[in-house]
Amino acid sequence: MTEHRVELSDGATLYVKLLGGFSPEKPLLIALHGAPGLASHRETEATYGYLQSRFRVLVYDARGSGISDLKPPYTHERWIADIEELRAWAGVERFILAGGSYGGFVSLDYALVHQDRLLALILRDTWAWGTRGMMQALKVSLTSKRIRADPERQYRMWTGILLDDQDFAQGVGEMQALFAPDAPDIDPNAEHENTPRKGIVHAATQNWAFSQNMPKFDVRSRLKAIRVRTLVVVGRHDLITPFECSQEIAQGIPNSELAVFERSGHNPAKDETKLFQARLSAFLSSLAL
What we know:
- It is a single chain.
- This protein is an alpha/beta fold.
- It folds into two domains: 2-129 and 218-285, 3-Layer(aba) Sandwich (Rossmann fold); 132-210, no CATH class.
- It has helices at 41-48, 76-90, 102-113, 130-143, 151-159, 165-173, 203-213, 243-252, 268-271, 273-285; strands spanning 2-7, 13-19, 28-32, 56-60, 95-100, 118-124, 230-235, 256-261.
- It has an eight-stranded mixed sheet, with helices on both faces.
- Helix 2 (76-90) packs across helix 3 (102-113) and helix 4 (130-143) runs antiparallel to helix 5.
- The longest helix is centred in the first third of the chain and has 15 residues, at 76-90.
- The two termini are 22 Å apart.
């Protein structure tokens, strides 16, 4: 494993970890975390790090997240350009792209622009229509009996008008139990990819993502244009990006397969780790790499 500060063409610097080294004989997998302004490479490293004996796994804090530069714009177009620059930095023409939650939105948009660069696509607990997704997240945060949320704060969070970083941290904090499945042996308050880290919460990134990006994100009618092999992963009990959203994606992408994890919430890689790793490994082994 090596750590890097990669400077991009516009002067922004991203924090990058390359697991598995620079060995050119290994295929490259680039993994995108979710929750802009909140999550980090820790999520993707925990999910895909086990693959480093067979793959080079590139994980990083996206622009505006973690300890990467807080240099806007935080648009999908800019985040896609960042992926392209990291691909070139890693020295490959084609790679596997994996995105979870919000990282799945960016992955879908990347696939529609740069499909020729992809060996395969992995989408975990995501959706294809931003407006419906935002309303679903707001609805469940206000109606679920599993949590007690501040309606005004949740409204600010899901419409991208948060007051400040503390407002963001509090909004996510009161939603913790929604990300885990309702299972007696799984702690709903355990740390996950959307657990706020002290001092590393960036409301400006979340505000941009949900006030500007999500209202115009709708790739439903374009899913059929994605021809690359795709694995769509979802937890049966995901309340934020429900099963139906992943089902819609899998039905829309012609060369895709849907993997449903029956005891998982928003992150099967955490909730059912062994099953997730076995299913992902089987998919990757089936690729002609």
